[in-house]
Amino acid sequence: MLDGLRSFAKSWPGKIMGAFLLVGVAGFGINNVIVDLGSNTVARVGDEEINSREFLRAYQAQANAVSQQMGSVPTASQAEAMGLPTAVLLGLSEGASLDMLANDFGLGVSDAKLGQLTREDPSFGGTLGNFDASRFSQVLQAAGWTEAEYFEARGDEARREQLISTLFAGAEMPAVASDLISDYASATRTIDFITLSETSIEAPAAPTEEELAAYLAEHQAEFRTVETRTAKLIDLSLASLAATKTISDEEIAAEYEATRANLTTPERRTLEQVTLTTPELVAQFEAGLAAGTDFATLATQAGLTPSSIGTLAQSEITDQALASAAFGLPENGFAILEGIGGQRAVHVAAIEPAGEPTLEEAREQIANRLSQAQARGEINDVLDQIEELRAAFQPIEQIADRFGLPVYELDITAGGSELAAMPNLSPEEYSRVAQAVFAANPDRLIPAVPLSGNAHVWFDLGEVAPARDQTLDEVRAEVEAAIAEERANNALLAKATEIVTRLENGEALADVGFELNAFPQLSSPFTRFGSEDGIIDSTLAAAAFAGGPDHAGSSVNEAGEVVVFQVVDVAEGTPLDQAVLDSITEEYKAGTQSEVVAAIREDAGLRINQQALTQLLVNNYGQ
């Protein structure tokens, strides 16, 4: 029978039947059959799977960190552009690689050890710091974990720690590497140097007409105008409409009388404190308080630096004991209060008494408030009227005149920086208005540009000046200056090369400098990163370290100056501080660990279910 089936499979009818079967299997998920990854598996390292829940947890943590910088959670396409999914998968694959190796070594974690790790986790501590079962359930629920998932993940983490602590316990950085790093970071050079200037060279020859034309042709892109559009604009916002209102003296006086109680500013006190961490300090401050010793003297004697609490009204202090004590003390008085971790001395450094502004002092504030209130009641009606007038093709000047709004006539470029002339427009909105201006057609009705806070901008488009190449007559002065600067820079570099050659041939820098009226300066010792006083920057330092004793050279420093130098002293590096070496050693260990894990992952093979990954991100974060 099997022989018959094999014969049928080799025939043309059998091959056709096989094609139909292949299509049928494809409809039931042939992609997963081919890649050997289930729909719930995002990736696999060897036999260790990374499932969708595990990936989403790690991805969410990374996405939240990115959202704090962007202001929003990135979509799937944005995250892909930033390489976020790849970074998360690589991190998870490192853990999966260690899990695979731990399985090969037969490592495990007992239930007793898992229980101990759970009880010692501060995330699950109650009020007294002991393990709280209800807290444990709340934290897992908030994180979307089941108990089984948590214990599995904690077990994997413990096994990885066993593996790492065993494999990399003796991974110390070699002494020769430590010595090289110390020497690199702390070795110093001292140089004599002169700074060349325009007085060090002959003035460059003025360019001819032919040279000017040739330079402009070669650098035409640098001498090209940008497209500019002239527009007449008006803006309607609470601020712009309020500016059109006139508030009478009688209205201001009446509002002052009606609201003067609310205009009173409360008493505010500037408070500072020191923490009294020992019984001796408490006794010292109590004795000083009884003897009338001032707070500053006591703090100095105790070697304490007061920390500022702030300048606050009593209602702004949430600690009632502190509020009562602070506002019961005279200026420069202090009291000893209970605090977190011990007692503290609280000092009243200054008192700002409560006050009531006069009518003249409050006039501007009241006028602004009343005009804002009037504008708030009218803005929607004015908006409707302006839209009707624009629909009737009324020009901007007539609309502005009708409502008392100012007209801004501006030459606007694509960046929109010229819109800073409109005081009620925020910088964040310049680009939106500029885009509308550059998208506008003068032969069509131009709609309003909606802005934040129910504000709008309307404009009439005027002259459009397209981008173009400028002629030599238009930019003659700029081209002449550019050529002069280029020739001067080239001459300075050539002079520096000439001086270095003379120094290498045995001439003294002082003699060369005397010819140029540039007297050598002696630097302080500096490292490869420059001098502490900033005179030798990192660029010049790198040039000095490019050779040994008596090395001569030149460099253009970060300020754009051409400097010629000669090394006069070379000092070997000194050992770095132990804390720095410890930090470098930890980096070395981490790098070694990463390389080993990467090698394990490469040997086992990392397979990614791209279809499942993409679908997971789109479903949860949008395209």
From TrEMBL:
<keyword id="KW-1133">Transmembrane helix</keyword>
<dbReference type="InterPro" id="IPR027304">
    <property type="entry name" value="Trigger_fact/SurA_dom_sf"/>
</dbReference>
<dbReference type="InterPro" id="IPR000297">
    <property type="entry name" value="PPIase_PpiC"/>
</dbReference>
<feature type="domain" description="PpiC">
    <location>
        <begin position="247"/>
        <end position="364"/>
    </location>
</feature>
<keyword id="KW-0143">Chaperone</keyword>
<dbReference type="Pfam" id="PF13145">
    <property type="entry name" value="Rotamase_2"/>
</dbReference>
<keyword id="KW-0472">Membrane</keyword>
<keyword id="KW-1003">Cell membrane</keyword>
<dbReference type="InterPro" id="IPR052029">
    <property type="entry name" value="PpiD_chaperone"/>
</dbReference>
<protein>
    <submittedName>
        <fullName>SurA N-terminal domain-containing protein</fullName>
    </submittedName>
</protein>
<comment type="similarity">
    <text>Belongs to the PpiD chaperone family.</text>
</comment>
<keyword id="KW-0812">Transmembrane</keyword>
<dbReference type="GO" id="GO:0005886">
    <property type="term" value="C:plasma membrane"/>
</dbReference>
<dbReference type="GO" id="GO:0003755">
    <property type="term" value="F:peptidyl-prolyl cis-trans isomerase activity"/>
</dbReference>
<dbReference type="Pfam" id="PF13624">
    <property type="entry name" value="SurA_N_3"/>
</dbReference>
